[in-house]
């Protein structure tokens, strides 16, 4: 929800407000603008807030005046953050994913100033870190072995649940927390579409195989849901009475057990199977010829590079 009676509401006052904040290196005023812009455009604000706080502090400590900044100011700040440490943090930004998030946060801060109508100095921006497609992912052959492993589960209901979950994670690109929030009406078998709820709400087209896997699971779900005193609205339910969980919504522990069993039955090992399944979905979409922007939209990933990058 946007703040009421804010100078950021009106383009006529927004620029003056931001220019005054930059002239004084007022981090609180600039953070207010960052949060406002992120909520307005639906950006994720957490890392941008940290970047803004560190950058403004560093620029003030260097004695720089806005807008008379050295052309390499952002490069120097980036070098400090990645080779030593951010000025307000005890540790350097070393992980590839963290560097990408900070680079993106730096761009978002600049985007916020541009949105505010501020005239920006011509500064060199650090090069974009490239990490997305070197993430570990399951190959098509490994995914097929996982699906066969799930189909080999000794309990029939868990076979169909496991296969459905694998297709949602490894083909549709649904995240675990999104998986747990799915409602029965979110699956539209006739249209072969899944509606994903949450922070990155979206509609995802399903393959024929994924649709058939979900339809097969729904037959088991109907019998299990009928045992509960009140019908559950959630799409994915626990299929065994272990710890009184029969008919209750799928949770992280159940998902972990399903994936561990599928890995075991498929003769595979992986320390982070949910991440590998997600990046398998990303690569699959790219191989189908979708643009990186569309792939990011379908999977909820912050940003995606093309396979040629």
TrEMBL record:
Keyword Signal: no
Domain annotation Tyr recombinase: ranges: 132-309
A molecular-function term among this protein's GO annotations: DNA binding
First and last residue of the signal peptide: none
GO biological process: DNA integration; DNA recombination
Record-annotated membrane-spanning stretches: none
Protein's recorded name: Tyr recombinase domain-containing protein
Species classification: Bacteria, Thermotogati, Deinococcota, Deinococci, Thermales
